[in-house]
Every structure is written in C-alpha cells, then in structure tokens.
Amino acid sequence: MTPDAALLELLTSWLPAQRWYGATGSAPALEIKGEWSVRYDGATGARVRTLYLLDRGADTVVLYQVPLVERSILPPGVPAIGEVDGHLVCDGPKDPDYARVLLALMQDETTLAHGGAAGHHQPGAEARTIVSTRVLSGEQSNTSIICEVEQGAPIIMKVFRALHHGDNPDVVLQSAIAATGSALVPASIGHLSGSWPDSGQPEGVAHGHLVFAQEFLPDSEDAWRVALRAAESDDDFTARARALGEATADVHATLAAAMPTREATSNDVDATLASMHSRLELALREVPTLEVCRDAILAVFAEAAEAPWGRMQRIHGDYHLGQVLSVPGRGWVLVDFEGEPLRPMTERGQLDHTLRDVAGMLRSFDYAAGSVALVGGGEAPHAWAAAARHAFVDGYISRSGVDVRDHGALLDAFEIDKALYEAVYEARNRPGWLSIPTAAIRRLADRSNIFRTPAQP
Question: Which of 70, 235, 359, 408 is the most exposed place for a label (fewest CB within 10 A)?
C-alpha cells in the first residue's frame, strides 16, 4: 500500500467523528484533489501538509480542507490520528506549528509555487509571533485556532473546512470594513487563499479562501447570551438594542462606501421574490398548518414586488444576535459575515438589500423572547421583544437616515422569508420550538407588523 493510500484509509475512519464533517450515516469515499506542504524548521521539526479531499460518500459531493502535521515526535498534549510511512500524523489545528506556518505565510505574503496556496497580509497589521495555541471548542462547520502572541492582542484563525469556488464574504467584507479603521469588526491580520483542480470551472481550476486571521476578543460575549439574560429577567434592553441598530447602519454605510452598489433592477426583484416563493413552498410542505397563511403571505410578497427597492449592496447576509459580540469598553462588534450557510458561495457574494439584515435581527429578538416564553415566561418576554425591536429600528433609522417603517411590505417580506427558513429548520430538528417562527409568520401575514406606527410611550 502506498503512503497516500494508507493515509486515505486512516482519514476514512477518522473523518466521520469530526464535528465539521457534514455527512452522516455513510462512510467517506475520499480522493486527494490537491495539496500543499511546508517544512517547518522550528525546534520540534514538522511537515505541515494540507489536503484538498473530495468526499463522494454522501448524496452531496463535498471538498474538504484537511490540514495535517507529520512529525516523528508529537508535542505534549497533541493527539495523533495515526502513523503513516514512519511518521505520526495529527490534525493540523491541534499542533502549534501549523498556526505558526499559516501566520508566516500570511505575514511574508508567500506564494507556494507548486502547492496552490498564497498568503495575504492585511495592510497596516503588525507582525506577530505565536507563543501558544488552542482550538476553540463547539464549532461545527469550521475550526478556529486561538493564538497567544508575544505582543499585542491574541489572534483567532478560522480554518474553512468545506471549500467552495469563489471569495468568502467573511474574509472580503470584514477585511474591507477593518481597512477603514472601523472598530465594529475585529481587526484583520491576513488570510490564506488556495486553488485546486475543478473540471466544472472554465479553466479547470477553482479558487477560494482557506484561512482567515483576525484579532481575538477574549473578554467578549455574544449578543444572544446578553439578550437572553435580559429577556429572562425582563431587564430593559432598549438602549443596547438601539446601539445595535446604529452599529448595523454604520456597517451598512461602510460597506456601501467601500464596495460596489447599484440601483435594484427588475431582475434583482424577480430573483429575490422567486427565492421567497420557493422557501414558502418548502415550508408549506414541511409545516402544513401554515397553509392557512398562503394567500396572505403571497399578498405580502406581491406588495413587496411593487414597492421601491432602492440600492443593492453587500450586507452581512446571516444576521442575528449570535453574530454580534459585546466587547467591554468597545460595545457591539459584528462577526461571521459568511452569509446564509445553505446558499452557494457565488450567491453569497452578490449584492443584496439591507432590509434582509434588519429583518434577520428582528427575528433574533423574537427568538430570544420566544425561547424564554417556552419555559413559562408568560407574556413579559413578548413585550420585551417588542420594545427591543422598536429600539433597534429607531437606532437604525437615526444612523442611516432611512425610515424602514416606510418600507413595511418589503420589511415584512424579508422577515416572513426568514421565519419560513426557521420553520423548516425547527420542523426538522427542534419541533418543540416550531411555535416561535409560526406565530411570527401568522402575525406578519396578518399585516400586524409593530412598525406600522411609532412605539407608544
């Protein structure tokens, strides 16, 4: 058996146990589509080798990025996957030398001549030296490495596991915002891009982002936990919700200034509404009780189609409380600009409407309240959510100068679309929570959006 065949056999048994591995119930069928490697010359000596592994074992073919480190002796605390050709093999992110190699490639802006990878350093970012690393637990689709450095703030490196052709919005958008000096996203350090064979591309090669390095904010807490505590104790959240609306508008303005925008075309409207109609049909199949809302929802969509849409631009794309950090002394910081996970990368890079982000955050306030109400919170959480939603919109309007209340049909349509997405998810994965999105769908379909009139004192 060749070393590569032995390695594939080893990875076939290892892969299904990884949180980021997407297939369940089927054995991997792996093929190496490309790779790059770097010999690290540190005291421990290692070969960092990143494989582009195509998995044909599930219904959907997926290309995974699988970084490995091969060495004769493993550092303390680093587990081995196994041994191949006389070398111990470990999961790259768990070995400190892997992160050191990544940072060196970025800071030196190295292009690997025979490996299809290139490092890019954020202009103005200070050079750093990694002291120690640890892998962030709990992630499912990517792997994040926290790196302590000799000087300055620690770094977080996000390793994208499932690879796609095209620029990753998480890298492109946050780098563009950070380049303006904005403190509303973590400071960017750099990124690593790669290429691999792909017969589906015109030139037979695909290109995409592999790793993104940013400032790590160790004392932060995600806004979902902050809001959930407030909803549980019925604490006034309006000042923080308003500040979040202001931050959202500021990020939208920064993206509009830094990246292309254009007036919405009939094709934009038609494509967006077609997606909404498709989501509606899926939700009706998964949650038949929503059938009574069909005509009312279609009426909202029809009104939205005739409404003025204004300009299209780059947006967050999957915006909710879990995508925002509360940072002591700094306020709200937005993260995870990858866009809706189920949309293809090419779609996530397209211009969109800012009301999609507004609607996503409004749904998130509703979810925080709904989750509290499910465990016996009574009506207080819903009043809390109404106040938070009003304050968020007030903040967005005050900073953007756009009164979203004047675009009620369009906002309703985006919020219904998000709630339909939620209903499908809950029906498939968490039926006990299904009442949260279905109640919102019924309210919105009845045109009882709380933004039709200003909040009453």
Answer: 235
Whose CA is closest to 192, among 157, 165, 152? 157
Predicted TM-score (pTM) above 0.90: yes
Q: Distance (Å, rounded) from C-alpha 414 to C-alpha 392? A: 16
Q: Pinpoint the alpha helices (H) of 205-262.
A: 223-233, 238-258
Determine the average pLDDT of the residues in 129-152.
91
Place of tokens 């990246």: 259
Q: Which residues pair with 70 in a beta bridge?
A: 47, 89
Confidence band for 258, pLDDT divided at 50, 70 and 90 = very high
Query: Measured in whole angstroms, how far is the alpha carbon of residue 164 from the centre of its chain?
Result: 14
Is the pLDDT reported for residue 270 higher than 90?
Answer: yes
Task: Using DSSP bridges, classify how beta strands 188-197 and 205-215 pair: parallel, antiparallel or unpaired.
Answer: antiparallel
Model confidence at 448, in pLDDT bands (50, 70, 90)? low
Show the 3-state SS of 102-158.
HHHHHHCCCEECCCCEEEEECCCCCCCCEEEEEECCCCCCEEEEEEEECCCCCEEEE
In sequence order, what DSSP letters do the residues of 308-365 get, joined into one string? Answer: ---EEB---SS-SGGGEEEETTTEEEE------TTS-HHHHTS-B-HHHHHHHHHHHH
Amino acid 51 reads L
Give the HSE-up count for residue 243: Cα atoms under 13 Å, Cβ half-sphere. Answer: 14
